[in-house]
Write a structure and sequence with these properties.
By secondary structure, this protein is an alpha+beta fold. 38% of the residues lie in helices and 28% in strands. The chain is built from twelve helices and 17 strands. The strands form three sheets. A seven-stranded antiparallel β-sheet has the order 1-2-8-3-4-6-7, with helices on one face. Strands 5-11-10-9-12-13 form a six-stranded mixed β-sheet, with helices on both faces. The chain has a four-stranded mixed β-sheet with strand order 14-17-15-16, with helices on both faces. The longest helix has 26 residues. It is flat, with a radius of gyration of 27 Å.
Length: 427
């Protein structure tokens, strides 16, 4: 993401930020930044009708900048995971893939700026595109979470850090993992016969050879192995398939004289055992010691490590592992939160009070020296956290939920008695 312009009033957080998205991850950042009632200005194409003196109508498209008050934001990453049973297209073996944007962001709302082509109050949907500037004004002001996301999205040199091939016999999923996104770029599925007899064995070997060739060709198109930002190439499978795929690819790269691919495979490859040949097994990949050692500084690896730590704490010492909005807020009020796990989905609430509640919680934990890990709901770890209400905490000291709730009830009853007493004296 490129920061084109920015003005934020430090007193009340009002102001604007102008950004230029450059890839799919930037579109995801914008989706998390833009809330209901925000003011958004971006390029648009509008069909305009002209009526001539004779009464005939003529329509044409006009390019213009529209400013709308947001009523609805829709994000989609569909289109990236193409599926095929065969790979037809050919590509030069020495080239790296040209990764095209597949994420889409649609922002709907009423037009709030005067325009010769569009009347005030008319509804319009902005289709946000790569390399087109977008200006955002927050209706409730820019809070700390929104500003930190802007800063994080504009850090140069980002991009996919892990390319993964999760495979089984006849199936493969090609994935790219960046700081905030897990993108399935391609899938392969082809039938593999059983090798029950001599003839069956021959058919089996032919089918597997075809499968390996499909994986090789798809890898060239969908994994940017030559990018400096790609730190690891993962081959994951339940059995021996990962070893066979890796061996086939290295041999084929040598046969074709593709030195870039051969070097990338040799320097970046990590082979990991997983329980199933499906994309959700990436969570197992992120917890493997080889990946942890190689990617311990990245955000998504940190998410996996922290979530794993929470589940282990929940199993061994449940008084130090709390989850759910109410319970986590109670623990935070007592200064007990050592690590706060919170999903970015909670900050996309259409209710400003709900968002402010979670922003205040994050700021409160940080002020007291706690660590805050904001999980991306586009990663497997973030999806697991969402199934657990989207918020959890690892406490620095044990607290009994029932005792704390009883204390809260007593405090509420005492406050009510004091209020009634003060009203009685006033009367």
């Amino acid at each position: 993401m490129k920061l084109v312009g920015k003005y934020i009033d430090k007193r009340n957080g009002s102001g604007y930020v102008t950004l230029r998205p450059e890839d799919d991850e930037d579109i995801w950042h914008l989706y998390n930044l833009i809330q209901q009632d925000d003011l958004v200005k971006a390029p648009a194409v509008r069909r305009v009708q002209n009526v001539s003196a004779t009464g005939s109508t003529e329509s044409h498209r006009v390019k213009l900048n529209l400013k709308i008050q947001v009523s609805k934001v829709e994000y989609s990453s569909s289109g990236g995971a193409q599926s095929s049973s065969s790979d037809q297209a050919n590509q030069g073996s020495n080239s790296t893939p040209n990764m095209q944007s597949t994420a889409t962001l649609h922002i709907s709302g009423k037009v709030v700026s005067e325009n010769q082509y569009v009347r005030l109050g008319a509804f319009h949907t902005l289709d946000i595109e790569i390399n087109r500037d977008i200006r955002i004004e927050k209706s409730e002001g820019w809070d700390s979470v929104a500003l930190s996301r802007v800063e994080e999205s504009c850090v140069p040199g980002r991009g996919a850090e892990v390319g993964a091939v999760v495979c089984g016999e006849g199936s493969a999923a090609f994935c790219l993992l960046s700081q905030h996104l897990t993108l399935v770029t391609h899938r392969i599925s082809t039938p593999i016969p059983r090798k029950a007899s001599a003839s069956g064995s021959s058919q089996y070997e032919k089918a597997m050879a075809k499968f390996y060739s499909m994986v090789y060709d798809a890898f060239l198109r969908h994994i940017p192995f030559g990018n400096p930002s790609l730190r690891a190439i993962v081959f994951a499978s339940p059995g021996w398939v990962r070893e066979s795929v890796y061996t086939w690819m290295t041999n084929e790269a040598s046969r074709r004289g593709d030195k870039l691919l051969a070097r990338s495979l040799r320097e970046k490859t990590v082979k990991v055992h997983v329980s199933s040949p499906h994309v959700h097994s990436l969570m197992e990949v992120m917890k493997s010691p080889e990946i942890v050692a190689q990617l311990k500084e990245t955000k998504f690896a940190r998410e996996g490590i922290v979530l794993d730590k929470f589940f282990k704490m929940l199993a061994s010492d449940e008084m130090r592992a709390w989850y759910g909005p109410d319970h986590v807020c109670l623990a935070a009020d007592r200064g007990a939160v050592g690590t706060l796990l919170i999903s970015d989905e909670l900050f996309r609430s259409s209710d400003p009070k709900t968002r402010k509640k979670y922003v205040s919680l994050v700021e409160g934990v940080q002020r007291k020296g706690g660590e805050v890990v904001i999980f991306s709901s586009m990663h497997e770890s973030g999806q697991q956290l969402n199934q657990l209400t989207g918020i959890a905490a690892i406490l620095t000291f044990p607290l009994d939920v029932e005792v704390v709730e009883a204390e809260e009830r007593e405090a509420a009853e005492e406050a009510e008695k004091n209020k009634e007493g003060s009203e009685g004296k006033a009367g």
